[in-house]
Specification:
The chain is of the alpha+beta class. The protein contains four helices and 18 strands. The chain is globular.
Length: 325
């Protein structure tokens, strides 16, 4: 038995509601924690992030529910989503994250995932999570976005593996709330790491997790955001099946790597969508755009916009965006 890593994760009836009951339960909990001040303990501000924790009354030695809040200047909700969502970007701001990928894709905004968190030396096994993510949003740009992740039980695609402890993610939620030209970011996580862990390391996780809010902000401030897919008013999503979107990992702690984005999809003749990229920071020098299938055109329209137009139906096509050579 091994962890599935499908090349084409879209389900046969894409787009569909994948795990509505599980996701909606986690969304309700996130909204409850977001709205309430009850039980939250103010942990002060650190690295530009306001920190809070809520101890677990039933397990005082477990990881408390944690919350981090920060303001990102001159940032849209879509841009910040493109910082926090793809594993290649998460590697730049989450020190506990090791890797992750889609197991099944239900729609443009919902998918089942597998992720691994690093262990802590010989004392603590790595943790892994099988879960579902859904982005709650409108089709408009720079409007409120809520990102919800929660554990999914009983997945045949990711059995528990020797040498790893399966964590239980009750909820991980981001609220991306535009405030004029800026963005208020709130990140709440309730997780049970399961297995044994020294209390000092539990405290370290409880501190590091909400600080990811500020680390993601720092990535946006210095590097910008990854490209992302957007369906505009005159685009045509009919017959479009998104498979994967990937972003290259950093080469090292100080080297950003190739900064290459790739989107793989199936499309009908007449399908059209856009890829929006950061033309002020990440790709200030321009982009090279390529596509590997006949009948698909990728046109750089300038100002951070690429139109992907399918003049023919295609079973598999990949569009890549990279800094101009």
């Amino acid at each position: 038995m091994s962890i599935a890593h499908p090349e084409f994760p879209a389900v046969a009836d894409y787009p569909t509601e994948g795990q509505a009951d599980v996701v909606n339960k986690a969304l309700a909990l996130f909204q409850e924690e977001l709205a309430s001040s009850e039980g939250w303990e103010d942990q002060g501000e650190r690295e530009g992030v306001q920190l809070y924790k809520k101890p677990d009354a039933e397990n005082p030695y477990g990881v408390p529910t944690v919350k981090g809040e920060c303001l990102v200047e001159n940032c849209t909700s879509d841009a910040f989503l493109a910082v926090i969502q793809l594993p290649g970007m998460r590697l730049r701001w989450d020190p506990r994250f090791d890797n992750g990928h889609m197991l099944s894709r239900f729609s443009r905004v919902e998918y089942e995932f597998y992720s691994e968190m690093k262990g802590m030396g010989w004392l603590v096994y790595p943790r892994d999570i099988v879960g579902v993510q859904k982005n709650f949003r409108s089709e408009g740009l720079n409007e409120e976005i809520t990102v919800i992740q929660t554990s999914l039980e009983g997945s045949d695609l990711a059995p528990e593996m020797a040498g790893k402890t399966r964590a239980t993610l009750t909820v991980s939620g981001w609220q991306l709330l535009p405030q004029g030209a800026d963005l208020k970011v709130t990140y709440i996580v309730k997780i049970s790491l399961n297995g044994s862990m020294p209390f000092a390391m539990v405290n370290m996780v409880a501190t590091e997790t909400p600080l990811c809010t500020g680390r993601a902000k720092a990535v946006y401030d210095t590097l910008g955001h990854a490209p992302f897919i957007h369906i505009e008013a005159d685009d045509n999503e009919t017959g479009l099946v998104l498979q994967t979107e990937t972003f290259s990992p950093p080469a090292s702690a100080t080297e950003p790597g190739t900064l290459e984005f790739a989107a793989t999809f199936k499309a009908a003749a007449g399908s059209k969508f856009h890829i929006l990229y950061d033309h002020t920071k990440m790709y200030a020098g321009g982009v090279d755009v390529s596509v590997d299938a006949a009948g698909v055109e990728a046109i750089d329209e300038g100002e951070g916009r690429i139109a992907v137009v399918c003049t023919e139906g295609v079973e598999v096509a990949t569009v890549k965006v990279a800094p101009k050579a």
